[in-house]
Design goal:
The chain is globular. A hairpin with a 4-residue loop joins β1 and β2. By secondary structure, it is an alpha+beta fold. The chain has five helices and four strands; from the N terminus they run ααββααββα. A four-stranded antiparallel sheet has the order 2-1-4-3. α2 packs across α5. The longest helix has 19 residues.
Length: 169
């Protein structure tokens, strides 16, 4: 009994498959940039100073690109809830790769993305800002305790500005 032979691959398809094989090997690993603890601390301290200078008692959290907290600074009179909230804002920013003020607007009730607000650990309110440089997400900074998300964002931006030269390529 003779079995039917499978059809031969068209020559162009065979060439495409052969050309793709080295790409699979070349993309087996990649490099990432990470914030050093010293750089994360510098950002947190600058954000804390900005908030203090504005009269706000806050907590600052800086997370790495995976959302793991690197630094947490709580000012003397910042509310007890601000430690969890600052970390949640920073985590949310890196997790969704979106500043939380933008996410807050996109996840309002009735919007297609409103369900995001119900995920554990998500803080869809202003105060979480991504730390990016050279096209890479390095982490995020979260601020909690100012009178509103806009003020939290201003403090977070001051933290990022303080490390901008350190993180640029």
């Amino acid at each position: 009994m003779e079995f039917p032979r499978p059809p031969l691959l068209p020559p162009l398809l065979a060439l495409a498959l052969a050309a793709a094989a080295p790409l699979a090997v070349a993309e087996a690993s990649f490099s990432v940039r990470l914030l050093t603890p010293e750089t994360a601390l510098k950002a947190a301290q600058a954000a804390l100073k900005k908030c203090r200078d504005s009269g706000f008692q806050v907590t600052i959290a800086v997370v790495d690109r995976m959302g793991v907290t690197q630094v947490l600074l709580r000012d003397r009179f910042a509310g007890p809830h601000t430690t969890d909230m600052a970390a949640a804002k920073a985590y949310t920013a890196v997790s969704f790769r979106t500043n939380t003020s933008e996410l807050a607007a996109a996840t309002q009730p009735g919007q297609p993305q409103s369900g995001i607000r119900h995920r554990p650990g998500v803080a869809a309110v202003g105060g979480g800002v991504m730390i990016e440089a050279g096209g890479s997400l390095l982490g995020a900074i979260g601020v909690s305790g100012a009178p509103g998300g806009r003020e939290d964002d201003v403090c977070a931006a001051a933290g990022i500005a303080a490390i901008r030269e350190d993180i640029e390529l």
